[in-house]
């Protein structure tokens, strides 16, 4: 299943009270850097796109899906999630985020299955509430099982 990309290595729960939105994207991306899915320049691209286009990655209340155009530093499809226990404002206080998803895509189509499965989970309000209440990685992973 596409959401198997979310596991104990790619999901984290952090305090978040001292993070800027740029820090949040970097920290949420770190597992994908660690496992060789993306390079640092892909992370820089995600931040650059938000700085250019605004908070378009804010895909729902408290949810961001950071991504950038496929690039050579993106080696395989990847998905990571960082939940912050404190809100981190994405660009301004109109975009509070606590669920920071990071999507790595190698081309324009291969990641669409991941987005579809993720959308199915996130369109269920109870699932989103469970994610927002979660305090451990295990609680988060149970939502995606």
Provide a quick synopsis of the model.
With 145 residues, this protein is of the alpha/beta class.
Would you mind describing this structure in some detail?
- With 145 residues, the chain is of the alpha/beta class.
- It is built from 5 helices and 5 strands.
- It has helices at residues 21-34, 40-53, 112-122, 125-133, 137-143; strands at 11-14, 58-60, 62-66, 78-89, 96-104.
- A 5-stranded mixed β-sheet has the order 1-4-5-3-2.
- A hairpin with a 6-residue loop joins strand 4 and strand 5 (96-104).
- The radius of gyration is 14 Å and the shape is globular.
- Shape annotation: globular
Estimated radius of gyration: 14 Å
Strand order of the largest sheet: 1-4-5-3-2
Number of strands: 5
**Averaging pLDDT over every residue, what do you get?**
94
Strand content: 15-25%
Distance linking N and C termini = 10 Å
Roughly how much helix do the residues carry, as a percent range?
A: 25-40%
Number of helices: 5
Strand count, sense and barrel status of the largest sheet are: 5 strands, mixed
Low-confidence stretches: none
Order of helices and strands: EHHEEEEHHH
Structural classification: alpha/beta
